[in-house]
Amino acid sequence: MQWIYLIPALPFLGALLLVLASGRIGKTGVTLIGCGSVGIAALVTIVAGLQFMNSGQAGYVQHLWDWVSIGTFRIGMDLRLDALSLVFTFVITFVGFLIHVYSTGYMADDPDFARFFACMNLFVGAMLLLVLGDNLLLLYFGWEGVGLCSYLLIGFWYKDPANGAAARKAFIVTRVGDTAMAIALFLLVQHTGSLQLGTVLARAQELWTTGDPTVVLIAFLLLGGAVGKSAQLPLQTWLPDAMAGPTPVSALIHAATMVTAGVYLIARTNALFVLSPSAQAAVAIVGAITLLLAGCSAFVQTDIKRVLAYSTISQIGYMFLALGVGAWSAAIFHFMTHAFFKALLFLGAGAIIVALHHEQDMFKMGGLRKSLPGVFLVFLIGSASLAALPFVTSGFYSKDQIVWLAGAAAGGNAFYSLAAVLGAFITAAYTARMIFLVFFGQEKTHVHHKPGPVMMAPLYILAVLSTLAGFIELPHTLGHLTLLSDFVSPVLPGVVTVHGGVALEWGMQALTLGLVALATWLAWRLLAAPFPDGLKQFLKNGWGFDDAYNVMFVQPFVKLAKINRRDVIDKIYTGLAAVTRGFHRAMSATQSGILRWYVMGIVMGAVIILSVIIWREYAV
Amino acid sequence: MMLPVFILLPVLGAFLAWLASAVNKTLPRWVALLVMLAGLAISAGMWWQVQDDIYFIGDRWLQTYELPWMPRFGISFSLALDGLSLLMLVLTFFLGALSVMVSWKEIKERSGFFHFNLLFVIGGIAGVFLTMDLFLFYFFWEVMLIPMYFLIGIWGHGNRLYAALKFFLFTQAGGLLMLLAILGLYFVHASATGTFTFSYFALLNTPMAVETGRWLMLGFLVAFIVKLPAFPFHTWLPDAHTEAPTAGSVILAGLLLKTGAYGILRFVIPIFPEASQFFATWVMLLGAIGILYGGKLAYAQTDFKRLVAYTSVSHMGFVLVGAFAFNPLAYQGVVMQMITHGISTGALFMIAGSLYERLHTRELEQMGGLWPALPKMGVVTMVFVMASLGLPGLGNFIAEFLILAGSWQAAPWITVAATAGLVVATIYSLRIMQKVFFGTSLREYKLPDLSLREMLMMAPLIAAIIWLGVYPQPVINVAQRAMPSVAVHSTK
């Protein structure tokens, strides 16, 4: 376990080497460094993870050096390995490695191959720091670091200004959330005098009773940070545009890892949310609404990557819902399965996009099940998992848990249940629609070249994981296995179920099964059905949030900046200068050199002065 | 005995560089570079030594030096070094060396006189950071001003005379108020204690009426916030920066602005603790307005150097917010901000200079799509753009985080406004990258990427900004002892 510093250090080192080498090491060198650093980090994770599980410790902290230490305020470069960070670290390094390998195929012809891997390595390093940091400042370090990499990679193909705009949008919108989070950190510094996770959470228990306004405020501000990074309402607008980046980026950053950072943050600071019931309820409400809105938007998209983007927003909504009702481990479970199947779907989509020569419009695909059978197979597995096809997919087990707990958990209620069930229905519908459009029907675009083994191998591995990962946690109705929730129990409180019981769980499962079937059938029927155009456009544009924000924030800011480009304050000083100069001109005009005027001036002055004197002496 | 060296070295070097121009054009550059590097070596060496606390005389001062000058008026050549001065000296010579390197190709005319002025301004700045006699302080304050006026007025760009004059008038007006306040303090002290003295240590504990203290404090404060510059006294800065040669901009942004911040920490707060607390909220408010206003104007600019100049207004707002929060975190943040802003903004001006050398324009609208032609410069710019928006891992983040975390405890609402400045900083910073390096290029460029000399300038800057971001402790340790007592006392 003493090697855990290598886990984030290796990808950082890889990024540094790739930047310094700046193209002098050839494609092989870049591949070796880029994939190797993440691969070794994954191996170290597995070894450290096994050691950790055998040690029986609740958490292992490695102190590297003092980062900032002022009086009693001490922040160390400390890494923390515990059940929660281990799950995230494993997913990040392992899925990250697979995506790196895949990228060597996907990006093979790109002239900026080295830059791509430098950014990807930097991202993995920052993401690992985020989840391994033992204090909230280090978490924030990683948090902003992944934001930077997201920006760099969304705008990777920088020649198109639209990509640059999408990249900046992602950075700026998430920064709005980060600012809220920063204020939460200030509050924690003020009240607990620390940012170290253990101290903060312990002090919180002593300082505040449940519902204390301060802790509620802190929790709401943290939620602000989480909704920014995890693209939840009301800061979800950046994620669909983020699809401008290369597809492996979408898979790694905008599906599997970075966008779930908000889930990690809330799970990590669960004690603060437990103390603030209203904030925790807000988490659930945000999740429930987001999962429905984004699901509807996914149903009308034409770009395959945007379907997946909205689907990601929607699935993270499920995780938020789980966090909000107190089903902490269910959220982490869904994070893990989602990372596998969504990475699989994105990479599969990437394989299709490359095969069709960068065609992303689903209406120009079709019939691909024959020309790309391998991709079809894995895509189908991923889709089944996303749609939560019962019994055989991991997505079923993780989502089923949330659907049940949305009603059954202590914080749950009927509204959440309804949202979760409805969400499951919508998910199945848009997933089925995607499969039908892409793989069935007439072939509309000819397949250029089939993905090679370097791209297919990660897909097969992820397909296996998308299926098997679900079996570590089985519902009461089917064997009742709780490997994951037991594993994370030292970090995350267990879920308390109050409403209904196993009977409700049975009912929910049956309902889900029925709805998935119904949704698939409906999607098939609706493929050709006309949709009211206005509504379609409204949903497609993500419920008009972008337009609203444009009118409310972007345009006023730009307009204000434009009006005052020349700094109105300077007018005070130039005005002062102008007045002085005017006065000077008036005075110098009298100095004309004409003797007559001077004589006249003297005479007039004498007359005036004399008049005044005489008037004052004799007027009375 | 080392202290006068920091002033004499650049001043004598200045004359030597001028003389050297009789030999050839290059010799003054080498003289200047060697002088700066020597100063850097000595100051950095002292920094390295004093990491251990035992070197501190008494509680705080590392070294003192005193020579009687005009004893009948209580004026002496009194120098003293504490952690704050030391850090500022290291920064002065570091940026001084870089400004010599950055002018290597840019300055072709009258290189002897140029380097005379460059070294002289550094000498003045070193004096400002070391002097503990208020008369002498005013003297050095003016010494900084005149060579800077020449640097802008002779080697500047198109509108250089206007900019030089504006710079001179603003600083001079502030300086005169300070002179009045110094004299006022001198007489108030004399009438209270019977001794006429300009000594900082004596004046520190001057008993005075509350009203008097407030007026005198305002005299000092105005001089320093004009220099900082704070809203609404900032308008000289964009002109001066834009028109100055690159070395001038680096010294302006990196060092001259810091003398304002230094003055606040050294004189305003310790001498007038009551008045400082009385005006604290208003000053912090000015700082927060500066952060947002400067950021918004930075976004609106189309001239690269003008844009960076307005970011300075924004970043210096943090200094005001932090200095008047009277809190150890905020104080350490302010010291960090002075250093990291010097590095990151200095670097951005150097980049602007390098771009100007290649494209002969500062207009952002004329740039775009330069990444393929200048990938190395792109990476370097990215680092400093990220520093400017406060990305963790780079020094500016530590500075701004500490300032905000500290000021939050003093004034939450002002801190919220200042924190919103981070979003504005993101907006204007990313705009730089987009306008210069991304997008499609207007022409087919065949430009040389960073030369060896430029890499040698940029590498230490990048190393410094990353080092300060991940291990700022050497700065914090040294600055700790120089903390104004008002900041220490107000902690819980």
UniProtKB/TrEMBL annotation, chain A:
Name by which UniProt lists this protein: NADH-quinone oxidoreductase subunit L
Membrane topology: Multi-pass membrane protein
Keyword Transmembrane on entry: yes
Subcellular location: Endomembrane system; Membrane
The UniProt record lists the keyword Flavoprotein: no
Keyword annotations: Membrane, Transmembrane, Transmembrane helix
Annotated TM spans: 31-53, 83-101, 113-132, 138-158, 170-190, 210-228, 249-267, 279-300, 307-333, 339-356, 376-397, 417-440, 452-472, 506-527, 595-615
Top-level taxon: Bacteria
Domain (NADH:quinone oxidoreductase/Mrp antiporter transmembrane) ranges: 134-427
A Pfam family of this chain: Proton_antipo_M
Gene3D superfamilies (alphabetical): 1.20.5.2700
Span of domain NADH-Ubiquinone oxidoreductase (complex I) chain 5 N-terminal: 67-117
TrEMBL record, chain B:
Keywords assigned: Membrane, Oxidoreductase, Transmembrane, Transmembrane helix
Highest taxon listed in the record's lineage: Bacteria
Membrane topology: Multi-pass membrane protein
EC numbers, comma separated: 1.6.5.11
Pfam family, one: Proton_antipo_M
One Gene Ontology MF term: oxidoreductase activity
Cellular compartments annotated: Endomembrane system; Membrane
Major enzyme class: oxidoreductase
Transmembrane segments: 6-23, 30-50, 70-100, 112-130, 136-155, 167-188, 215-237, 249-269, 275-295, 307-326, 338-356, 377-398, 410-430, 450-470
Domain NADH:quinone oxidoreductase/Mrp antiporter transmembrane: 132-419
NCBIfam families from the UniProt entry: NDH_I_M, PRK05846.1-1
Protein name: NADH-quinone oxidoreductase subunit M
